[in-house]
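User: I'm writing a tutorial on reading structure tokens. Could you give me a worked example: one chain, its sequence, then its tokens, then a sentence or two explaining what the tokens reveal?
Assistant: Sure. Here is the example chain.
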Amino acid sequence: MLFPTETDVTVATVDVLTDALLGDHALAFRKHLETLLASGHKQVVIDLSAVYRIDSLALGALVAVHKQTRGRLTLRGVTISVTRVLKLTRLDRVITQEMRPTWYRQVA
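And here are its predicted structure tokens:
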């Protein structure tokens, strides 16, 4: 499974286990998130620590979840390359990202 998920009553935590959310993976990602929201989850946390490439389909899925949860979407472990895309599209100003510890250092 590419998107193992832990669920609480209202919170769903999704781990993305692919290095690229592109094409078919992005579509599967969106469908998975839609299923979670349809089952009543009000808050979503997405761990993107394994993702180094993301396309417009995946960005669209993030925007859709952000709207449907009324801003209760949090991105965890965002890599530098994905951060660049979020900054380029200005989604970094809209979608909440968990901060890394100060000791964390990622090789670009």
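What the tokens reveal: The first strand starts at residue 5 and ends at 7. The chain has a mean pLDDT of 89.
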